[in-house]
Queue: 3 jobs
Job 1
Amino acid sequence: MSEVKTQILLKKDARIGIVNRGEPACRFIRSVKEYNNLNSCSFKSISFYIRKERDSLFVRNSDESFLLENDDEILTGAGHYLDHELLIKALKKCRM
């Protein structure tokens, strides 16, 4: 069986924004760290969260984290992850 090789199109020190939360985000963060160890890379995981998630495991385990804020309101529900304008604003804020 021939080995399939995947070409990574990211720089070895890229920052990867995670627009997810909970266990899926934790698994992704863990996978990034494992990949870094196996391939001599230094990818950084960046999580986005709302105030009530600030102590969550995915926020603590990511290399960087940014609070999703809306100027008019304090965000508390899951809808903020579907607000594309808010996400783009957060991505620009963290220079992604």
Note: Helices lie at 22-39, 57-61, 84-93.
Job 2
Amino acid sequence: MISARGVLDPGRAIDLETARFRLRSLKPVDASERWLGWVQDPEVVHPANAPVRHMTRQELAKYIGSHDNYTRYLIGVFDRRADSTSVSSSSTSIELTIPRPST
């Protein structure tokens, strides 16, 4: 969303629950050793057609923070029955088309 100052403001975070899972926008604080292990494991990332990545926890937090919940979403899937353990994540980008003023 473009603010009155002409700056892109973050959109509203996603937060959905089912009987078994919670899907929500991820935050930099969600960067974990478990997630770092996933991005470094070829058996985890290759089926998702993603490259193996070697990054620090701080770099992962920065990547998570680059999603603005307006044009870029990073959604975590959490198991509600297992102390909210993260089981998956998905990144989605949305291309916004801003109409040109008529001349």
Note: The first strand starts at residue 15 and ends at 17.
Job 3
Amino acid sequence: MRDHRPVTRTDVAAVEVDGEWVVYDPRTGDTAVLNPSAATIWAMLDGSVTAAEVSEEIAQAHGLEPAEVAAQVRELIGDLAERGLLVDDPSSEIR
């Protein structure tokens, strides 16, 4: 799924609290705390970029190699998907 473009669910709330982001899933009542780097990635998951493009953009912004960042980006996206915070079918979400 090289061209997969992850999308966050539109009904999930994300707010900044003391420099970290708290993500609340109203379907389950679960929360997740994202550090600033993870929050930046969360904000990019609007269906317009692939995980590789997210990695490249983050790497470029911080002067790192995309390969260094890619594993962490994939891990975060996998965790968000496992928690049900991403949309399986972006066309079902109204943005």
Note: Residues 66-82 form the longest helix (17 residues).
